[in-house]
Amino acid sequence: MKKIGILHGKERSFPNAFIERINSKKPDGIIAESVSINKVMQGEPSGYAVIVDRISQDVPFYRAFLKNAAISGTAVINNPFWWSADEKFFNNALATKINVPVPKTVILPSRNLPADTSDESFANLAFPLDWEGIFNYVGFPAYMKPFAGGGWKNVYKLDSMEDFFDKHGETGELVMLLQEEIVFDEYYRCYCIGGKHVRIMPYEPRNPHHLRYVSDFKPSPERYQLMEEIVLRLNEFLGYDFNTVELALRNGVPYAIDFCNPAPDAEKSSVGEENFEWVVETSANYAIERAQNCKEGSDNLTWGEYVKRSVEKQPLT
Question: Which CATH class name applies to 183-261?
Answer without folding.
Answer: alpha beta
